[in-house]
Amino acid sequence: MKKVVLLWMFSLVLVSCGVSGENGNSNGNDQGESEVESLSFEVEHTAKDDVGVFTMNLSNDSEKPVQLTFSSGQQYEIVVKDSDGDKVYMFSEDRMFTEAIIEEEIAAGDVLSFEQEWDYTSGGKRVDSNEYEATVSLTAQTVNGEKVVPDAFVQKLSVTIPESPEENAPEKEEDESKDNQEKDASESAEQNRTEHENIRNIVVQGEQGEYTITGETNLNSDIAYSVEDGHYILVEKKNVELHGSEKWKSFEIATEIEKENLPNAGVLTLVFSWEQAGEKQYHSILLENFNN
Q1: Which domain of life is it from (predicted)?
Q2: Domain with CATH 2.60.40.2440 in the chain
Q3: Which of 148, 197, 205, 277 is most enclosed, with most CB atoms within 10 A?
Q4: Residue 94's pLDDT is what?
Q5: What's the pLDDT tens digit per position in 261-289?
Q6: pTM above 0.90?
Q7: CB 129 within 8 A of CB 163
């Protein structure tokens, strides 16, 4: 009878130990969840003209340090999808990461930050300016040795892709071109106001190799013109055809220069030439300024 009682008491001890062990494991899991809950994950996106910047902050709100373990060199993932749900960007795509285990410690009250740029391209081409959805996550495997549950550190946010500089370029170039044309016309008019005693009322119209020049001259002798860029004669000497019988006769010159012969820099001038009292005379006018 004594042996039976002893065996029964021994069984109670074993059962008691088993219950104690189960309670111990339960406390351990609760501790792991509280470790994750003490961390707050926030993501911001800054849209610049050429790149979008994702800023990820993991804050330790507890009063003790936290140790994170990553199974590889990839510590975060970013996936961007369009309104149809099609993926246009994935950070890890076509990238290689070290297979070594990475550990990061966040001191109490401190922040672990990551920053990643995206150049708005998908398959080598810039995506359309529009609204997109980004899913940003940290790939931490454990927090203080406790396994991290899926989606513990995940944030979704709306991303606005701005218009590319190229989309605004035509309008900008048109405005700049208009300004340059007005500037060139002003400079040309200013220079051509300095008239010769034998040539007056010069007006130059045209650009990029096609020009019309009108004016008046009181010369009775033959007058010719040529076009040069300061280094080369682009239009050989030709006679100017005069109209009228008055003292001041009018003329109109139409000249064309092939675009491949136009200077990349410098100025294009038309040079009048004639002979007076046995001496050669010259007068130059500006056709176009290529220094802009």
Answers
A1: Bacteria
A2: 196-289
A3: 148
A4: 84
A5: 888 888 889 999 999 888 888 898 899 98
A6: no
A7: yes
